[in-house]
């Protein structure tokens, strides 16, 4: 996804993943090694996000996220 003006990593996580936690931040950082500080993201920056396990029908949780990528543009 591409960061838009005014967005924070917390807002992005809640919007695309449905929750925000330390574990999710760690997963996002592992998918984005160029992200040295998750509190400093820039407009236009492309961020890879973990996605919910495809076989799950429940809401995302830290235990059913797999380290793959969603490629969404708003």
Task: Give an account of the 3D structure.
The chain has 74 residues and is mostly helical. The protein has one domain. Helix content is 26%, strand content 5%. The chain contains 2 helices and 2 strands. It has a two-stranded antiparallel ribbon with strand order 1-2.
Key terms:
about 70 residues; mainly alpha; two-stranded antiparallel sheet; 2 strands; globular
Helix-strand makeup class: mainly alpha
Main β-sheet: number of strands, strand sense, barrel status?
2 strands, antiparallel
Order of helices and strands: HHEE
Strand order of the largest sheet: 1-2
Cα(first) to Cα(last) distance is 8 Å
- Overall, the morphology is globular
> Percent of residues in helical segments?
25-40%
**Which spans have pLDDT < 50 for at least 5 consecutive residues?**
53-74
Number of strands: 2
Number of contiguous helices: 2
Strand content: 5-15%
Mean pLDDT: 80
Count up the domains.
1
User: C-alpha Rg, in Å?
Assistant: 12 Å
């Amino acid at each position: 996804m591409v960061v838009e003006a005014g967005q924070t990593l917390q807002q992005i996580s809640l919007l695309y993943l449905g929750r925000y936690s330390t574990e999710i931040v760690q997963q996002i950082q592992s998918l984005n090694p160029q992200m040295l500080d998750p509190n400093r993201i820039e407009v236009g920056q492309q961020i890879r996000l973990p996605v919910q396990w495809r076989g799950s029908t429940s809401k995302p949780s830290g235990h059913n996220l797999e380290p793959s990528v969603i490629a969404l543009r708003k």
